[in-house]
């Protein structure tokens, strides 16, 4: 059985993975403050991510998945339980504070959207080895495809502002059918189910475009943070609430589900907990910018949870080995 990593070793493993994220955010911040990129750069870069890079990434993740690898019902159920409970609880909590459904949904994404893609893969492989690749892929699909899709549906419903009716359902379905963030993973699922390999040039194109999603989203976040904008509510309180749910609430619920409900092996339970404990990814920021909602809280939750995760992930790595 492997020895538990020393605290210093766990911190170094986390730093190696997390520091490039700070560097990309800082690059965007410097580019805006120095005037290298103008005031419209955030919006345009975000549109590139939403309409080109992120759909390519979602398509690539789903199309390249192996059903035999991702069919792990216990792990799926445990990780999904942690995400779903935190997401639903956050929506209910924010709605009780008279928050609009659209904004409550984005807040819930902040609390439940783990950065499995940019941090999860390198950290899990560094700590747990190649065996962690399949569970991390499952967590990524559940987060960036399933959770993301649920959130987009709720946002579209909230934007209609109508009582449930056939007309409203038709409007929502029409908008969803034109949303590249939903169409891309559906097309990827079709490719995966068909068993057909993409032609080499097409696969390379999708891979190159998809790899631009996370770096560009982080630079866009830095651009946004460099601009002073008023926020609709106290930022610190919301940041602490959503960040706490993400870094403490989600991994705690996931661990309880993995161990007490679904009886996962210690290795799988530890992997699920580690992935649930990752900081907030850039997905909520993309949604907020796409729908022109206030992004101040979202951007700060992403930044603050990433900073705080240096401590929380280090402690978790030292505990679970």
Automatic annotation (TrEMBL):
Main location: membrane
Protein's cellular compartments: Membrane
Entry GO terms, CC: membrane
Annotated transmembrane regions: 6-27, 48-68, 74-96, 108-128, 134-155, 176-196, 208-226, 238-262, 268-288, 300-320
Annotated GO biological process: transmembrane transport
Keyword Nucleotide-binding: no
The protein's name in its UniProt record: Transporter
UniProt source species: Acuticoccus sediminis
């Amino acid at each position: 059985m492997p020895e538990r990593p020393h605290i210093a070793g766990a911190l170094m493993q986390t730093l190696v993975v997390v520091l490039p994220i700070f560097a990309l955010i800082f690059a965007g911040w410097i580019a805006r403050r120095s005037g290298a990129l103008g005031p419209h750069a955030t919006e345009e870069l975000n549109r590139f991510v939403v309409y080109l890079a992120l759909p390519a990434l979602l398509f690539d993740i789903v199309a390249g998945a192996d059903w035999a690898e991702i069919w792990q019902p216990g792990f799926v159920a445990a990780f999904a339980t942690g995400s779903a409970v935190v997401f639903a609880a956050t929506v209910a909590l924010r709605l009780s504070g008279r928050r609009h459904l659209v904004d409550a949904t984005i807040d819930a994404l902040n609390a439940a959207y783990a950065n499995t893609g940019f941090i999860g893969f390198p950290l899990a492989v560094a700590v747990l080895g190649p065996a962690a690749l399949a569970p991390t892929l499952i967590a990524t699909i559940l987060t960036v495809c399933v959770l993301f899709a649920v959130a987009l549906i709720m946002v579209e419903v909230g934007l209609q502002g109508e009582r449930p009716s056939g007309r409203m359902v038709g409007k929502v379905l029409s908008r969803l059918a034109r949303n590249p963030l939903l169409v891309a993973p559906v097309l990827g699922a079709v490719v995966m189910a068909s068993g057909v390999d993409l032609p080499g040039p097409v696969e390379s194109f999708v891979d190159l475009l998809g790899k631009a999603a996370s770096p560009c989203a982080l630079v866009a976040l830095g651009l946004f943070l460099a601009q002073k904008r008023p926020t609709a509510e106290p930022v610190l309180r919301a940041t602490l609430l959503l960040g706490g749910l993400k870094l403490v609430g989600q991994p705690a619920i996931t661990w309880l589900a993995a161990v007490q409900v679904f009886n996962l092996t210690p290795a799988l339970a530890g992997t699920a907990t580690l992935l649930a404990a990752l900081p907030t990814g850039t997905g909520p920021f993309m949604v907020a910018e796409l729908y022109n909602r206030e992004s101040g809280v979202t951007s700060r939750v992403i930044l603050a949870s990433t900073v705080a995760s240096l401590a929380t992930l280090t402690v978790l790595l030292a505990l679970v080995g």
